[in-house]
């Protein structure tokens, strides 16, 4: 069964219409956790300036490369108690100061994130496998 896919032409996608996306966030919080864990990982920041774009892939099998570059100010990574956790506390919780246990704190953080968008793997023929 052969599946027909969309054209891999870079001009046929939204990325040609909007090549760069810039996002400015005045204050934000990312939380990773749930009520099955005693602690929740929280990342707080005051200002974030992020730029997203794409460029050609590093491998011929990939479609394109995602790029996110940015700068965050007044970043704090903390472990805070999960409010709805009902399980047993096996370990002593970390020492809390204010909102939670501070894992990392910095005035300025630079972010560079690169990720290739995988493409379809070409189908191998029996001749090339035996070859």
UniProtKB/TrEMBL annotation:
Q: Which domain of life is it from?
A: Eukaryota
Entry GO terms, CC: presynapse
Q: Name one GO biological process term.
A: synaptic vesicle endocytosis
- What InterPro entries does the entry give? BLTP1, BLTP1_N
Which segment of the chain is annotated as a signal peptide? none
Task: Give the Pfam families listed for this entry.
Answer: BLTP1_N
Span of domain Bridge-like lipid transfer protein family member 1 N-terminal = 1-131
What is the name of the protein in this document? Bridge-like lipid transfer protein family member 1 N-terminal domain-containing protein
- Origin organism is Neotoma lepida
